[in-house]
Specification:
433 residues, Transferase, Pyrimidine Nucleoside Phosphorylase, Chain A, domain 3, Pyrimidine Nucleoside Phosphorylase, Chain A, domain 2, Aldehyde Oxidoreductase, domain 3, 46% helix, binds uracil
Length: 433
């Protein structure tokens, strides 16, 4: 078998066999297949697509390319994953709630790249919080206090790590077979029994419409079935940022507020929907409405916030920052973004908002870029809000005045206003099982 034949086959629209996919994944992981050969094949897959069998074979080959974790000793672990978004702090809020309910919350998260943020960067904005603990400690934490959130220290799905970084540099991220296999290979290798996926849809997501998001969801659910991991997808709206903050410590502060019960409608809708399906998958409640009530109870009685504090303390974080979030150091400049027009917010360029936050230093364009935890954006107005001239659209948190001022101009450009009334956005766009 040789890589040139495999590339040519896919280039010409033919189907790849399991052996050919295994050959490519194995030899790309060990460096025999070069980046430029892999780039050619990935571009061919992007253009020609892959059928369901090929996508499943690619997923399983990538899942087996490194270590595969076994979490069965923890009981019924339900993993949660988002396909990526702007201001997505859902994991920080949801996992302590799940743990407070008594479901083992063992989750490995990633770092942010490009316009989307990463949970691990957010957690690391809490002074002392250690995201790179050993697997033994990770498992022991879950046994002892019911929760651990860590980065990917294990060599999980290294083929995906390489391929994802490559796709990012050749404009080949937005492909259903490539996204489905990337996510599911990591989830299969991470060892959870069941999987709940937040599939984001809209201008700040890889899937721009519900039809494509449904196809992606159905592909991932099908792969989950074959791998014996029941999977449910919740389609969430990403035409505007989730909640009101974007940036690492700003999002931790919002997450703490949410755990106290102070949640924006969109955050609340996503937490209730995803959480109630995670409870169902864990076998702890068949009735979705009852599950939602249970989640609210765990927030209102303070158990969810107490669990978050326990998590932070247990992983070396300074819990006094959670008790008093005003302790988080602020950016040097907090600049209001003032509207010079009136009307209803019709659209927000959410992807651009992600890039503005990245340019401020809250995210990274290249994988080795340094993150600045203090900077970011606070959003005051979203789609459907009425705006008068002089109203504040949001605030830019910047450490550099020039970069901050540029972000102000850029954020204003992200808002498209209309003279006509505009409905508020729906937050949950579908459940695919
Ligand atoms: N998230 C992933 O993990 N992989 C993708 O390809 C896209 C989003």
């Amino acid at each position: 078998m040789n890589i040139l034949e495999i590339i040519a086959k896919k280039r010409d629209g033919e189907k790849l066999s399991k052996e050919e996919i295994d050959f490519f994944v194995k030899n790309y992981t060990n460096g025999v297949v070069t980046d430029y050969q892999a780039a050619a094949l990935v571009m061919a897959i992007y253009i020609q697509g892959m059928d369901y069998e090929e996508t499943t074979n690619l997923t399983l080959a990538m899942a087996k390319s490194g270590e595969v974790l076994d979490l069965s000793e923890l009981g019924m672990v339900v993993d949660k994953h988002s396909t990526g978004g702007i201001g997505d702090k859902i994991t920080l809020i949801l996992m302590p709630i799940i743990a407070a309910i008594g479901i083992p919350a063992a989750k490995m998260s990633g770092r942010g790249l490009g316009f989307t943020g990463g949970t691990i960067d957010k957690l690391e904005s809490i002074p002392g919080y250690n995201t790179s603990i050993s697997i033994e400690k990770f498992i022991n934490n879950v046994k002892n206090i019911g929760i651990s959130l860590m980065g990917q220290t294990l060599n999980l799905a290294p083929a995906d790590k390489k391929l994802y970084a490559l796709r990012d540099t050749i404009s080949c991220v937005e492909s259903i077979p490539l996204i489905a296999s990337s996510i599911m290979s990591k989830k299969i290798a991470a060892g959870a029994e069941k999987i709940c996926l937040e599939v984001t849809v809209g201008s700040g997501a890889f899937m721009k419409n519900v039809e494509d998001a449904t196809k992606l969801s159905e592909t991932m659910i099908g792969i989950g079935k074959l791998a014996n991991k029941e999977t449910i997808c919740v389609l969430t709206n990403m035409n505007e940022p989730i909640g009101y903050s974007i940036g690492n410590s700003l999002e931790v502060i919002e997450a703490v507020e949410a755990l106290k019960g102070n949640m924006k409608d969109d955050v609340k809708a996503i937490i209730l929907e995803l959480g109630s399906y995670m409870i169902k998958l864990a076998g702890k409640g068949e009735n979705i409405e009852e599950n939602k009530k249970l989640i609210l109870e765990k927030i209102n009685n303070g158990e969810a916030l107490a669990k978050f504090k326990e998590l932070v303390q247990n992983q070396g974080g300074d819990v006094s920052y959670i008790e008093d979030t005003s302790k988080f150091e602020h950016a040097k400049y907090i600049i209001p973004v003032v509207s010079n027009k009136s009307g209803y917010v019709k659209t927000m360029n959410n992807e651009k908002i992600g890039y503005i936050s990245c340019n401020l230093g809250a995210g990274r364009m290249k994988k080795d870029d340094e993150i600045n935890n203090k900077v970011g954006i606070i959003i005051e107005k979203k789609i459907g809000d009425k705006i008068e001239v002089g109203d504040i659209l949001g605030y830019i948190y910047a450490d550099d005045e020039n970069i901050g001022n540029k972000a102000v101009t850029d954020l204003i450009e992200c808002y498209e206003l209309s003279n006509e009334f505009v409905e508020k956005q729906k937050h949950i766009l579908g459940i695919i099982k």
